[in-house]
Amino acid sequence: MFKEKIIPCKRFIGCGVYLAVFVGLYLLIVGTSDARAESKIIDRIAAVVNDDVISLYELNREMIPYLERMHALGYTGDQEIAAQYKLREDVLNQLIDKKLTDQEIKRLNITVSEKEIDNAVERIKERGFRTEEDLIEALKQQGMTLPEYRTRVKEQILRTKLVNLEVKSKIVITKDDIADYFETHADEYRFEKKYHLRNIILTVSPLADEAEKAAVREKMASIREEFLAGKSFADLAGRHSESPMAEKGGYLGEFEFREINETLQSILADKDAGDITDILETPQGYQLFYIENITNSPGRSLEEAAPEIEEKLYNEVVNKEFQSWLSDLREKSLIKIIR
């Protein structure tokens, strides 16, 4: 367990001045009910991680998307309070881990160039966007600008380099490991399922209130009912979808099952050609996926499957070793959680 000390929570208040001794804190401007009253700059510290702080503002900001999903689940009063408490602890621990890794990145002088960020963004565009404008529009739907997204990509590259240095360089996957996995998972490699998918997206503004979200979801439910009543999914996508693929009837292409993200894999696993998913709430908005067809291609040999198996085993070991490394780092760090 990491070192934790509970210390009294203090409130820092100033009137129109910066508190230099608390550099790094985010400042919230809180107005009073009297329009003539002076604004107050208020924030609280949620945790101290070595020489850095995590502000309550930062913690609350990170919790917002999770709280919105939680609210949609319809918890009772006591259930919601308990769930919010656990969520706060989980998100705070994630922020502590982020601070610790950021500190290690700085200590080890790990850097990333603009060219590396450009290349990463280009790879992302090639996988799912025809133009930069399409990417910008998709980011806008998630309440994010391209510069903000580039900053996030930069952080991901830095953390990948840290993991490579501290963890991955010490891991070796042998040919025997790969062969053993192939034998015990033979059914997965006898044939490859390929899914021909279409989708419909209805976007939701990041500023939408619950009533507006409910209206969008109700519209999607109506579209789904039209499909179940016999309407063509492609026609419905062409008329209603807000995706760049709408003009193609929402056709996304042909995908091997292993190419589909894990969340969607779990949804499609027990469905057949001609099936439609339930309404999915995603960062892009509300979505429906339609399985137009499923085909089987010949299976792969050990030699053909080896790169994929090696990556899978590698990632499993990396995740385990990284958590162990992070736990050791917590033990060596001074972490104070302020309640």
From TrEMBL:
Statement: the UniProt record of this protein carries the keyword Membrane: yes
Has keyword Membrane?
Answer: yes
Query: Which keywords appear in this protein's UniProt record, sorted alphabetically?
Result: Isomerase, Membrane, Rotamase, Signal, Transmembrane, Transmembrane helix
Write out the coiled-coil annotation as residue ranges.
none
Q: Where are the transmembrane segments?
A: 12-31
InterPro entries cross-referenced by the UniProt entry: OMP_Chaperone_SurA (IPR050280), PPIase_dom_sf (IPR046357), PPIase_PpiC (IPR000297), Trigger_fact/SurA_dom_sf (IPR027304)
**Alphabetical list of PROSITE patterns matching this protein:** PPIC_PPIASE_2
Residues annotated as domain PpiC: 192-293
Q: Which GO terms describe its molecular function?
A: peptidyl-prolyl cis-trans isomerase activity
Q: Under what name is this protein listed?
A: PpiC-type peptidyl-prolyl cis-trans isomerase
